[in-house]
User: Fold this.
Amino acid sequence: MTASDFRRIALSFVGAEDGSHMGATDFRVGGRIFATLASVKEGYGNLMLTLQHQAAFIAERPDLFLPIHGGWGRMGMTHIRLAPADEDTLTGGTAHLLEAARGEEPQDRQEKQRLAKAQAIRLAQTLTASLYLNLYLCS
Assistant:
């Protein structure tokens, strides 16, 4: 997988958009970052995982996943080695992500923000579950 593949996959999720965080490309849904290319020069994409999922991914596929060095890694931020990664590892649940991100259009600003946050959380949970399932099926 290349950085271009990572970008294409990240932007394929409903509501995903790219932005910049501390000078690096990031990918967000509902304003919440779920992935970045901050370490692309070192050959990594970055995923924002829970500590539990981070531990499970690293235990299952240490050839693909490792915690980001320092405090970020201790909060669940995780490198994925781009070169050995494949598209299925990152996109297994795209159909579920599309369903999870759908919803009715809210009318007021607070409701839009609440719904965007809920969609971002569902997206992150579904992406994590999809990655976990693909890791299980590929092992």
Observations:
- The chain has one domain: 3-138.
- Residues 65 and 80 are 5 Å apart (CA to CA).
- The longest strand covers residues 16-21.
- The radius of gyration is 15 Å.
